Automatic annotation (TrEMBL):
Cofactor dependence: Zn(2+)
Superkingdom of the organism of origin: Bacteria
Protein family per UniProt: Belongs to the zinc-containing alcohol dehydrogenase family.
Name listed for the protein in its UniProt record: NAD(P)-dependent alcohol dehydrogenase
Organism the protein comes from: Pseudomonas beijingensis
Pfam family, one: ADH_zinc_N
């Protein structure tokens, strides 16, 4: 099936309308008409070949929501018309220890929603900046939010799970002091989720203009990280810091804010390395510097249900396909409140 999409033919070229092919649904496949797709900073890293190995044409997009249009003969859980989502994973080996544990995100055979090998044309996966997608039922999520919230649910499929998973893994909850660094797509979800989990949340931003917003999102305190005095006020006080920043920066300034046995988890994936932190900042208080990548399928469903229950969605700006390139430029300037979401109906022209 030929469908309209938006993607790039080279790393130094803007995204443009493209026609792509989707496979005919197999026995375990779900075909989804995509209503909305969020724009993640990872899309920009990949499509501009900032990360290694981008295949062109590249169609990004892994914050996908829409309706089931068709199901294969052996699909019993989903039916035509269901409201569903697809995040960053469309396949995995299905039999390793990670897959058996519901941690498909750490399976060595994980197939990402775009730019991963597939037998389908053209040989690598093509993402959600497209009219529809065909995905094995295991990687399809059920959406329980009201249908009129659908556009604002899309970012939960990456920004939501990428922040929810580490917050849960490091036991964020009542009595814990938690920092969220970088108030973009991921960071704004991190604030909302940590707040809903009952933690004391401190937002770290480089943008003075986001101070009030961060409070509205659920932060108990806001620190403008360029201000050394404000930073010093939080020395040795955090149980956990979630760092979502998309660019290399000084990690020591944040590590010293952790108390004994505290952890800072990096989820931001800048194209070039951070300067190495000072080892003594880790040794002296037995601090941990960690990382985390999206989340598994069961946990993604748990996160979606948690958000539906707590009335949590992303703060979004809806854009048309022809605004994607301009949206990338605005995202680079930190000028997004707080996630761009594509109205996929605009792909039809
Ligand atoms: P985003 O919307 O662009 O937000 C990043 C935020 O980082 C900015 O809004 C800004 O917040 C802060 N920042 C500070 N200095 C910056 C600089 N020099 N350049 C860019 N940002 C700066 O991006 P996102 O979609 O949240 O993604 C954040 C990072 O996470 C990206 O690297 C992305 O690839 C990565 N990611 C990782 C995973 C994973 O599984 N680990 C999943 C999704 C995305 P302030 O204005 O508040 O300072
Ligand atoms: Zn993403």
């Amino acid at each position: 099936m030929r469908v309209q999409a938006y993607g790039a033919r080279a790393g130094d070229k803007p995204l443009e309308p493209l026609q792509i092919t989707r496979r005919t649904p197999g026995a375990h496949d779900v075909q989804i008409d995509i209503a909305f797709c969020g724009i993640c900073h990872s899309d920009l890293h990949q499509v501009r070949a900032e990360w290694a190995g981008t295949q062109f044409p590249c169609v990004p997009g892994h914050e996908i929501v829409g309706w089931v249009a068709a199901v294969g003969a052996h699909v019993s859980v989903f039916k035509t018309g269901d409201l569903v989502g697809v995040g960053c994973i469309v396949d995995s080996c299905k039999h390793c220890d990670d897959c058996d544990s519901g941690l498909e995100n750490y399976c060595d055979g994980m197939i990402g929603t775009y730019n991963f090998p597939t037998p389908d044309e053209p040989g690598w996966t093509l993402g959600g900046y497209s009219q529809n997608i065909v995905v094995h039922e295991r990687y399809v999520l059920r959406i329980r939010h009201a249908e009129d919230q659908l556009a604002a649910v899309a970012p939960l499929l990456c920004a939501g799970i990428t922040t929810y998973s580490p917050l849960r893994h490091w036991n964020v909850g009542p009595g814990k002091k938690v920092g969220v660094v970088g108030i973009g797509g991921l960071g704004h979800m991190g604030i909302k989720l940590a707040h809903a989990m009952g933690a004391h949340v401190v937002a770290f931003t480089t943008s003075e203009s986001k101070r009030e917003d961060a409070r509205q999102l659920g932060a108990d305190e806001v620190v403008v990280s360029r201000n050394a005095e404000e930073m010093a006020g939080h020395t040795k006080s955090f149980d956990f810091i979630l760092n979502t920043v998309a660019a290399p920066h000084d990690l020591d300034a944040l590590l010293v804010l952790l108390k004994r046995d505290g952890t800072m988890a990096l989820v931001g994936a800048p194209a070039t390395a951070h300067p190495s932190p000072n080892v003594f900042n880790l040794i002296m208080k037995r601090r941990t510097l960690a990382g985390s990548m999206i989340g598994g399928i069961p946990e993604t469903q748990e996160m979606l249900d948690f958000c539906a229950e707590h009335g949590i969605v992303a703060d979004i700006e809806l854009v048309r396909a022809e605004q994607i390139n301009a949206s990338y430029e605005r995202m680079l300037k930190g000028d997004v409140k707080y996630r761009f979401v594509i109205d996929n109906a605009s792909l039809a022209g």
